[in-house]
Amino acid sequence: MPESWCTAAFGAFYPVLYAHRDEAEARRCLDLLPRLAPLGAAGAAPVLDLGCGDGRHLALLGAAGLPAVGLDLSASLLRAARSRAAGLALVRGDMRALPFAGGRFGAVLSLFTAFGYFGDEGGDRAVAAGVGRVLADGGHWFLDYLDADRVRAELAAGPLTRERTAGPLAVRETRRLDAGAVAKDVCLRPLPGREAEAAALDVGADGVAYTEFVRLYGLAELDSLAAAGGLRRVAAAGDYDGAPLGQGPRWLLAFRKEVPA
Ligand SMILES: C[S@@+](CC[C@H](N)C(=O)[O-])C[C@H]1O[C@@H](n2cnc3c(N)ncnc32)[C@H](O)[C@@H]1O
Question: What span, in angstroms and rounded, lies between the C-alpha atoms of 117 and 133?
Fold first, then answer.
């Protein structure tokens, strides 16, 4: 499996860094999705949470009685998912090569920007094609992506740096535009006196530094990537409360797998 920034970024410290991306937010997101398109039902084809991370959405789907499977590449996030709720169906794998039979899922979820990571259209195209393959006819792909137009506008004048703390960590993040992507340079260091807690999150005394890249696809490009997988956009919103597209910070898109004529 090719090395990428994802290996560095989605480590044991990730849930602490993104602690605000919690179960309450996951609930808001999951409440919205069925307003966009059918999400699934008990006894129906399962839901695939693609890039499920620490399982915050998957646990809620399970608690609601929906059959669901989570796939992620990160061993430490899958461990966190395992300890969040008993009995979650978890698979370690690469979203570019889905280890599932065609037509197996009634819905596929790519939530909190679990898309656009592979730097070239080839990798992201493979993800969209794989989603199209594993979806049953008439099933839906729910893509929760950043509003790329808004990100471009926000960073047009230059990089933005933010310093904050997260648990035992001092965090410095610089967001900038980088050749069709948004890059985030991240530097993590243990807070004084909290070195042992930081080490438990795999952040040693020298700290950890890496850069995240998410490709800034426009809506028409996302539609075209999805279309290559046999998927057509049928609904959209701009935030987890259902604001119209363009009137919120995110693009929540539902694509339907077309039934062959
Ligand atoms: C931004 S996080 C979102 C996690 C989760 N969906 C959530 O909302 O909390 C992206 C997830 O994609 C996973 N990921 C990154 N590259 C991957 C790959 N090639 N295959 C599978 N999962 C991957 C990461 O490990 C991480 O859990």
Answer: 20
**Integer CA distances (angstroms), 11 to 30, 194, 205, in order:** 25, 18, 16
Q: Is the predicted pLDDT of residue 68 greater than 60, yes or no? A: yes
Strand arrangement of the beta sheet that strand 160-166 belongs to: 160-166, 169-178, 181-190, 208-215
Cα 213 to averaged position of ligand 1 atoms, centre (Å) = 13
**pLDDT confidence of 224, banded at 50, 70, 90?**
very high
**Amino acid sitting at position 172:** R
Helix 56-63 to helix 75-84 angle (10° resolution) is 30
Query: From the alpha carbon of 117, which atom of ligand 1 is closest?
Result: 16
Q: Average pLDDT for residues 133-146, to the nearest whole number?
A: 96
Is 60 exceeded by the pLDDT of residue 123?
yes
The answer to whether the CB of 54 falls within 8 A of the CB of 84 is yes
